[in-house]
Amino acid sequence: MFSTFVTKLFSDEQPTTTSKSTVHEGYKHILVTGNPYERGYSHGQQAKDKICTNIRQYSTSSSLPSKEICSHYVQKVYLPAIESLFPEGLEEMKGIADGACVMLDDIILLNARYDLSRVKYSPEASQKFVGECTSMAYVQDSEVGKVSDKVYVAQNWDMSPWLHDLDTIIILESHSTDADGTGQPSVIISLTEAGQLARSGLNSCGLGLCANSLWSTEDFSPHTPEYEGKSYLPFTLARRMFLECGNFAAGLKVLSTFPRHVSGNIMVGSHTGLAMDFELSPSAYFALHPTPLSIDSSAVLLTHANHFTGAYGNKDTYPGGSSLFRDVRLFSLLRNVKKHVVKSEPGLKPGLGITDLRMVFGDHAGFPRSLCEHADKGRQKYGAATSNTMTVASVIYDLSKLEIHVCKGNPCCGTWQTYSISR
Questions:
Q1: Which residues face 158 on adjacent strands?
Q2: 185, 41 in Cβ contact below 8 A?
Q3: Which runs of consecutive H residues, i.e. helices, occur in 9-66?
Q4: Which residues pair with 55 in a beta bridge?
Q5: CA–CA gap between residue 7 and residue 12 (Å, rounded)
Q6: Quick one: the chain helix, strand, coil %, rounded to 5?
Q7: How far apart are CA 300 and CA 277, in angstroms?
Q8: In this structure, is the dihedral angle defined by the CA atoms of residues 53, 58, 61 and 66, taken in order, positive or negative?
Q9: How far is Cα of residue 51 from the mean position of the Cα atoms in its chain?
Q10: pLDDT per residue over 309-347, tens digit each?
Q11: Comparing C-alpha atoms, which of 82, 103, 81 is closest to residue 94?
Q12: Cα atoms found within 13 Å of the Cα of residue 233, Cβ hemisphere only
């Protein structure tokens, strides 16, 4: 089961239990149990109003194609891949639809909204919408050859302010009752939009994941004769499939092989002390690995924003903007905390802590399009993206302790909540 704590930014490292009256300050926590359909049905019932709001918002959003085009892609492009590759996910989405009294197509649309947003716009036209998210992975080893003391996968999630203002994001805690003793996770906790199976998350096997947007010249809309009859899996469902895996290698296999027609970035980690980043294009993946924070430290760190940093950079269509400094800024701030040094100063506990990450994710260098991005951008004359985004949530997955720390809205001023999975 889960336990919940609420703390304010810059509080002590170990939060204290508070009354339930404070829980409303964060995003709604939804607990579901049973087989895939039962879990979905409970999700749909508990988050019905939020799901309907998300459907309404995306159905009228200028970032997605028309309702007719979305329906075509759901039925002809996404559904066949889901049926073939992730039937349990399809059952769960059917349950969500029934529980919320909406159409299955609408739930698939919510889970494919990232991919559908690329159908309407060419890579060049999409450049005015770029932005979204800064992620990281951190591993701290106490001694060589021993299990890592600290493994974090974390990010600031930047999206349209209405997700925050209309309160349509949820913390979905899913307990499976169909475990067959094969080592698969029995619990998954994810931060996601109501109606989605997962956006980022942590499972009871100690695997965690965060995601960022990427754009490349390979991204395409699969409606031409060349792609007729081919099916593709939405990124959101591939993330959930990773969280359904019981070990890191299996999860990496999912991410490197799932069929896709757009690019994206996924930061992953394991409680065993492994972490890496996947830059994904429609035809390839590029793996990035953490680097040591200093020569006298056993800590390693990896950060990422919204542009390709690996071998695929020559096909990146990111036009410039905050992504070009957010990942470097995050790395620099965490490196300069100095608590990662094994032979630390007297009184300093080795390794970065949750409070350190909370503080750094509230950084405002480059404001307002900073690590902690605010909705009010003021007057922008030149070089401004037409889309307006903000940090709708900051989330830290502690894979060693199986905890999720999440802040609703900007981490510089929000309230943090903690959920944990019992071992």
A1: 391
A2: no
A3: 36-46, 48-59
A4: none
A5: 9
A6: 30, 25, 45
A7: 13
A8: negative
A9: 18
A10: 987 777 888 888 899 999 999 999 999 886 655 554 555
A11: 103
A12: 23
What residues pair up with 275 in beta bridges, in sequence order? 269
Sort residue 147 into left (φ over 0), alpha (ψ -120 to 50) or beta: beta
Burial class (CB in 10 A: 0-12, 13-18, 19+), 423: exposed
394-410 pLDDT, tens digit per residue, is 999 999 999 999 999 99
Q: Across the strands, what pairs with 30?
A: 172
Distance CA 82, CA 36 (A): 14
Structure-block tokens of residue 10:
């810059």
Residue 9 near residue 151, CB atoms below 8 Å = no
Look up the CATH superfamily of 2-28+131-421: Penicillin V Acylase; Chain A (3.60.60.10)
Task: Identify the residue whose tokens are 């020569």.
Answer: 295
Placement of tokens 């510089």 in the chain: 412
Q: Tokens at residue 260, please? A: 């896709």
CA neighbours within 13 Å on the CB side: how many for 415? 12
261: which 2 tokens? 């027609």
The low-confidence residues of the chain, meaning pLDDT below 50, are 1-24, 344
What are the helix (H) ranges across 279-343? 323-336
Residue with tokens 């994206």: 264
Token pair of 258 as six digits: 């799932």
Close Cβ partners of 389 (under 8 Å, ≥ 6 residues apart): 131, 132, 158, 159, 160, 161, 373, 375
**How far is the first Cα of the chain from the last one, in angstroms, to the nearest whole number?**
9
Instruction: In whole angstroms, give the CA distance from residue 286 to residue 278.
Output: 6
Using DSSP, state whether 158 is helix, strand or coil: strand
DSSP state of 344: P
Neighbours of 110 (CB within 10 A): 24
Q: What is the pLDDT of residue 379?
A: 74
Note whether 49 and 166 are within 8 A (CB): no
CA–CA dist 215, 385 (Å, integer): 15
Whether residue 51 contacts residue 93, with contact meaning beta carbons closer than 8 Å, is answered with: no
Burial category of 7 from C-beta neighbours within 10 Å (exposed 0-12, middle 13-18, buried 19 and up): buried
